[in-house]
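Fold it.
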Amino acid sequence: MRGLHVIDAGGATYGPAEMKVITAAFDEAWSEIAGLYGRDGLNPQKARTQLADAILSAAKYYRGDVATLKAAGLRAMRYRH
């Protein structure tokens, strides 16, 4: 179907509106922590992937809420590092 973009993440499917929320949560979270990566041997691409995974996992339960998804992503990153 033309114009329909979805992502399949571990059995959860997200449409355009949900991806807008997920993307906003990722961008906001990454802007807060990006400066922590790239120094002291911390790999920024690995961290971005981990953050994306955390936000996608949270999105299964908290669809439509940028602030909650962002907080879940940041919380997950604190536990990993």
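Residues 7-80 form one domain.
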